[in-house]
């Protein structure tokens, strides 16, 4: 029998079942989807969503966390705080040493304005996600960071003005409460 919450995730469940079939079963996927939408969801609610007992939901959630498959985190809601954020696509200079690239990444890991780093294959080598109090300061700090590096060939700043999918569930829930 499909629960109300399971029906909510039915479309995504079918999609993720195919992709994750070698790693996660339906219960694990439903637990992840629920935690993705609300990292504070209780084990009792996880049990209802996955249609399992509370001890099973708790055991499965803990196993996913211990294996490093899921990580529940808190996100700053830039929109709520009226902060500026941008994606910065970075192309490295041809022939730069692996050590110089490591140093650049380590510097980025220490920079509190950078909240995500992704390595790419293709036209660009990295994506850094920055945030700051306003767009003027954001642009200045990005340029300062990039110009201090001797491995950056060029970069493109894409100012983020709205992120509808990441917080769509939260926004819907807030609108329902109002």
Automatic annotation (TrEMBL):
Which UniProt keywords are present, listed alphabetically?
Answer: DNA-binding, Transcription, Transcription regulation
The record's GO molecular-function terms, alphabetically, read: sequence-specific DNA binding
Which superkingdom, per the lineage?
A: Archaea
One GO biological process term: response to amino acid
One annotated Gene Ontology cellular component of this protein: cytosol
InterPro entries named among the record's database cross-references:
AsnC-type_HTH_dom, Dimeric_a/b-barrel, Tscrpt_reg_AsnC-like, WH-like_DNA-bd_sf, WH_DNA-bd_sf
SUPFAM superfamilies assigned to the protein according to its UniProt record, in alphabetical order: Dimeric alpha+beta barrel (SSF54909), Winged helix' DNA-binding domain (SSF46785)
Q: Where in the numbering of this chain does the HTH asnC-type domain appear?
A: 24-97
Q: Where is the signal peptide?
A: none
Fetch the PROSITE patterns from UniProt. Answer: HTH_ASNC_2 (PS50956)
Any idea what this protein is called? Transcriptional regulator
The species this protein belongs to is: Pyrococcus kukulkanii
Q: What is the lineage of its organism?
A: Archaea, Methanobacteriati, Methanobacteriota, Thermococci, Thermococcales
């Amino acid at each position: 029998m499909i629960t109300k919450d399971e029906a909510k995730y039915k479309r995504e469940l079918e999609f993720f079942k195919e992709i994750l079939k070698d790693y996660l079963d339906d219960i694990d996927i439903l637990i992840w989807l629920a935690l993705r939408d609300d990292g504070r969801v209780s084990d009792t609610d996880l049990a209802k969503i996955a249609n399992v007992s509370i001890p099973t939901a708790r055991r499965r959630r803990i196993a996913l966390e211990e294996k490093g498959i899921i990580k529940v985190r808190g996100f700053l809601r830039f929109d709520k705080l009226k902060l500026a954020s941008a994606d910065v696509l970075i192309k490295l200079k041809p022939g730069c040493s692996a050590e110089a690239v490591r140093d650049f990444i380590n510097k980025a890991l220490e920079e509190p304005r950078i909240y995500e780093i992704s390595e790419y294959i293709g036209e660009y080598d990295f994506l850094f996600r920055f945030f700051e109090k306003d767009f003027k300061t954001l642009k200045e700090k990005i340029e300062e960071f990039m110009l201090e590096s001797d491995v950056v060939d060029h970069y493109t700043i894409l100012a983020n003005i709205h992120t509808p999918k990441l917080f769509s569930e939260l926004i819907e829930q807030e609108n329902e409460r109002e």
